[in-house]
Amino acid sequence: MSGPLRILVSTPDVPLYEALAEEFEAEHPDADVTIDSEDFSTLITNAPRILSTSNPPDLIKLASFGNLVKDEMIIGLDGYADAYGWDDWPQSQFLSARVAADGQTRGTGSLYAVGPGFGLTGVYYNKSLAGEIGMTDPPESVSEFEDLLDRAREKGLLPVMVNGKDGGTAFLLQNLQMGHAGTSEPMQAWTFNQPGADIDTEPTVRAAADLQAWGADGYLPDDVNSIDQSAAPIRFEEGEGVFFPSGNWHAPGLDESSGAFGFFLFPPMEEGGPYSAMTAGSNLAISARSEHPHEAAAFLDFVQTDATARELTVRLGGLIPAGPESAPMPTTERGSAVSDTVAAFQHLVASDGLVDFMANATASIQVSTIVPSIQSLLGGQITPEELASQLEDGYERELGR
Predict the structure, then answer these.
(1) Which listed residue, 178, 350, 394, 401, has the most CB atoms within 10 A of its CB?
(2) Residues near 145 by Cβ (< 8 Å), separated by ≥ 6?
(3) What's the CATH number for 119-279+354-399?
(4) What pLDDT digit, counting tens, does each position of 74-91 carry?
């Protein structure tokens, strides 16, 4: 193993990947790994331009593929999957990173990306403030959750801290949509670009109406559309908000701040209904112009299989480790937010409740359509019906249909 290896990730990922790089270099003394970063929105928007330069990174973090497969800007990993034995691992972890021969439909076809672990969304809660409103157990239905939000508001507390500037409100919309649909299958088909999939449906309209009502009822911050993913967790840590819908990547920071936070899955619409949550691999793809694809593939295998790398994935990244079924799960501190997220992921795997993020449906739909449409919805500028229509129109436009 020799030669330089350049890896481009999003800014919040830097501590994890720097630690992974250090461990990889210790295992392979001739390796030289450099970690570069971009703001997440910038990275997902500019990935095609970055990969088309004369000196692209060897590995790049991707949230969606867009036309990168069709335009042959990243390489297929099937050969490496066979060589390293990834084909013998549970294949559900690779589903969202498979792309069909049409270069567009996901969930089937060749493998194009893997990574150290998986994100998972749910709802964080401030244990002290949750106690003040009488929450003893996580809500088991949306109506129970709304009762808790009412109690928080009545006590003069902000019910929900969430970032609307860069898409945190989309987590709420998607969970409500899947709840009204009673299944995650239509949403999964849409995010995977399967023929006939449509988001302009009654469950989407009802979810948008719920979200708009939550804003009007004072459940969300007055400045929700100005709060980004950097400010939201800080404000939540400081006691602003009883609940914070977001992902497991925030769990290490919340534990480190005080350890006074828990995590639960967004509840189903009705008690006893199916739980669903958004998850996606923190995936890296190998540039078609990489001069060190074999070294890049070795790094991808290392982060999934090395025991220390898996521990770092949980502790620093807050992610659920990828890898073989036989690999032990790193231990977590009982009662911590990280421990709650790991337990939630295992529950969802057992119940087949994992679904990709709607933001990953196309390369830039999050920035071009989802975020501005939800902001307009919460600002009272469009109706729930118009939001559903805008989402589908933006989707069709980006897919060229």
Answers:
(1) 178
(2) 123, 139, 266, 267
(3) 3.40.190.10
(4) 999 999 999 999 999 988
